[in-house]
Write the structure tokens for this entry.
Amino acid sequence: MRLLSMILLSIALLGGGRPADAEVSFCPGLMKAVGPKLAGRDAAFIRSYEPGADESDLPLGLSTTAFVYDNALAAIALVACDRVDQARTIGNALLHAASHDRTFDDGRLRNAYRAGPAGLGAALLPGWWNGRKNIWGEDAAQDGTSTGNVAWGALALLTLHQATGDASYLSGARQLMDWVIANATNGADGFSGGFHGYDPQQVRLTWMSTEHNADVHAVADWLFRLTKDGRYQDAARKARRLLDRSFRGDHFLLGTKPDGSLADDDLLALDVQLWPWMAVPDALAWRKALGFAERALAVDGGFDFNGDRDGVWVEGTAQAALAYRMVGDPAASQRLLAALRDDRTPSGLLNATRIARITTGLSIDPSGASKIPDFFYYKRPHLGATAWAVLAETGWNPFTGARVP
């Protein structure tokens, strides 16, 4: 086993962090999927999902949807693949959307936009025509603004600023972080969830997410390194206090409930165990959460989203592949990446799951009003899963903009 690890590590080092054989790389698949949709356009969003092998079309609620999180990840992954021009097309769409909202003028990003060219006017939101009711339909969660998604948009812009030196991307990232500070500050410990619902009367989400605060910490710390603005240092410290509070010795809780009390210990999520220490490199004790994930969330061939272990969550398994690389276990990383290559589809994207559907134990309604665990992942080609596979393969930490040694 040690010999295999050394061989794999040598291959990674000789390849400069990129696989030597393009046939086994995830970068060509990402470019196959997004390249034609970005070509010749200054600003555009990419649809997050494609129909699965047994589907002729996507459900109406996803048919036009380009989630900000997926697009931010895709932009970062394109930079990791040395496709900066294509990444800029998504970054420009993020800049446009944050400054051209149909209702609000405070610099926010919505959770999703309509896939396609950004245009010149107000950024279009996803939706569909309901022929039975003869009305235009939209999704309340997609119309809302998640603090974590705003932070991911900022991470994409910071990555582009690092790659290009273009000051507009740094200015855009500052605008998004300033929105978080102004609208999601929740006492001394961390940042709240954001807003949910339809325009113009959206509901403020008072719970705090470990995942969101890891994202915010990464943005604030990056901005402080660049600008030395004390507001960003304060924001990073605030986010870290929530992360410290959520860490239970060997694993992280989801965050807090709307009343500020900690989330239930039996609610688990894989990314919550990985992102905090990816985003806070000096928190070495937090890396124990990877061992917890192995014990509580691992399944044959990868990792599940939550503790019911009903199947492989491809996106999270790619995150774990990067996590293993970060802790110095390239053999474990390569095993997961090898399995992920079987998840590729003719579109170039990886499926979101290996079985027809996996559960998360969470509700689609982020307001907390619904207690029904109805948020599922399905076996459909997924932009976000593919982007994480690229990041794992290239050794790119999206929270810091640095390649993993």
